[in-house]
């Protein structure tokens, strides 16, 4: 259940910071997805940082393209990409406009809207697996490219948030309850190869059952990827 200050929407200034500051600070925050069938809320437990043109693991490493354009936009927007011809993944754009950086949302705990999330992920064996991995998270929340570049912050007027209450858009991020720093773990990003492999830019809440298993980069068949995401 989400109540009190937990329901306060994060302002755009939260995202207008370096990606390595934003990423661990997203842990424990509440991602809200509003669909025509209802609302789902998810407590973030695992994320990865990608730092644009200075990061060999980032989609924006070689510059702007039609696919990654949202990463260069204003902070506090979504970047959704389609991968391996099968799955969507959801990122939150951060840092100043024009400098591509974002945080991949890797895993979380469904805290409300369980029945709707289960309907989106009928093959999940238990609730802790509904959003255990970025493809599963996007599927559980019914996220696709239609949400690419949508605003996740409150409406603004003259640069100021109109009100610090729960957002009513398709995606929003609430303050939630961040974990104590001693509970945050960090390590290499999952599945990233090449020069970007050793960057310790994956952050997760230690011992949380919804966190996805770490996998080093290795070529994978489409059949194996499909099995891992279901």
Automatic annotation (TrEMBL):
Signal sequence interval, chain numbering: none
Q: What does the UniProt keyword field contain?
A: DNA damage, DNA repair, Glycosidase, Hydrolase
Which EC number applies? Answer: 3.2.2.-
Keyword Hydrolase in record: yes
Tagged with keyword Hydrolase: yes
Q: Which residues cross the membrane?
A: none
Annotated stretches, region: Disordered? 170-192
Instruction: Give the matching Pfam families.
Output: Pur_DNA_glyco
What the record says about family reads:
Belongs to the DNA glycosylase MPG family.
Protein name, entry field:
Putative 3-methyladenine DNA glycosylase
């Amino acid at each position: 259940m989400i109540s009190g200050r937990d329901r306060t929407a994060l302002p755009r200034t939260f995202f207008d910071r370096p990606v390595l500051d934003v990423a661990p600070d997203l842990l424990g925050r509440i991602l809200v997805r509003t669909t025509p069938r209802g609302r789902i809320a998810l407590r973030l437990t695992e994320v990865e940082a990608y730092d644009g043109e200075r990061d060999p693991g980032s989609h924006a490493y070689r510059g702007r393209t039609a696919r990654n354009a949202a990463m260069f936009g204003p902070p506090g927007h979504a970047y959704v990409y389609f991968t391996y011809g099968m799955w969507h993944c959801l990122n939150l754009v951060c840092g100043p406009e024009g400098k591509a950086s974002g945080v991949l949302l890797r895993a979380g705990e469904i805290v409300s809207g369980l029945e709707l999330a289960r309907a989106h992920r009928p093959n999940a064996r238990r609730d802790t697996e509904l959003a255990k991995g970025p493809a599963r998270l996007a599927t559980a929340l019914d996220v696709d490219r239609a949400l690419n570049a949508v605003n996740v912050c409150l409406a603004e007027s003259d640069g100021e948030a109109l009100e610090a209450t729960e957002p009513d858009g398709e995606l929003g991020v609430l303050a939630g309850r961040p974990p104590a720093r001693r509970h945050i773990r960090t390590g290499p990003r999952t599945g990233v190869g090449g020069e970007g492999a050793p960057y310790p830019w994956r952050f997760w809440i230690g011992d949380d059952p919804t966190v996805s298993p770490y996998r080093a980069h290795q070529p994978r068949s489409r059949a194996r990827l499909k099995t891992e995401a279901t």
